[in-house]
Amino acid sequence: MSEAIKILPHYTYSDYLHWEGKWEVIEGIPYAMSPAPVPKLQRISAKLATVFTNSLKNCKKCDAYDPIDYIISDDIILQPDLLIVCGEITKNFLDFPPALVVEILSPSTALKDRHTKFSLYESQQIKYYVIVDPATNEAEIYCLNDKTYNLQQKGKDFTYEFKIEDCSIPVNFAEIW
């Protein structure tokens, strides 16, 4: 008896440009970014974006961004919930690693954020990866050390100081919930 052959579509950035709605593509496989985030997730995202933006006012090189296309390769296009980018973005997308990425978990994205995206961000040598869980009101701070993410801090009520370029960004996570 012969084995069934798996035939999976393989999409690239040029395909992605024609799609409606919000999508990510990982190794050529599309992932819908819907439904829209729930209000609690939106509130957490807005508070974090405000903290990062305000902390970066005096930083000449870095800016905070809400979701933008981050293209790792022609068939890997991600939209992190929040990014800090050091350097000028000259295209309609980011094509170099940001300094920090935040993913805010939802039931539909948690597995992908904790595993697939974790590995992708680590492979891109992104200095900080922050996972925020609205269900438990906890944040996990991972920092790159010898090309591997190490958990620096986890919890609900703590302040963490991110050091990016010449900038210092203190975040009191108790205030985002």
Question: Can you offer a commentary on this structure?
Answer:
By secondary structure, the chain is an alpha+beta fold. It has a single domain (34-175), classed as tt1808, chain A (Alpha-Beta Complex). It is built from three helices and twelve strands. It has a six-stranded mixed β-sheet with strand order 3-6-7-8-9-10, sandwiched between helices. Strands 1-2 form a two-stranded antiparallel ribbon. The longest helix has 17 residues, at 39-55. The radius of gyration is 17 Å and the shape is globular.
Biggest sheet architecture: 6 strands, mixed
**Fraction of residues in H or I helices:** 10-25%
Q: How large is the share of residues in beta strands?
A: 35-45%
Radius of gyration: 17 Å
How many strand elements? 12
Overall CATH class: Alpha Beta
Arithmetic mean of pLDDT? 94
Name the quaternary structure: single chain
Tell me which CATH architecture applies here. Answer: Alpha-Beta Complex
CATH evolutionary superfamily:
tt1808, chain A
Low-confidence stretches: none
Based on Cα principal axes, name the global outline: globular
Q: What is the CA-CA span between the terminal residues? A: 56 Å
Structural class: alpha+beta
As for the CATH topology, it is: tt1808, chain A
Count of helices? 3
Order of helices and strands: HEEHEEEEEHEEEEE
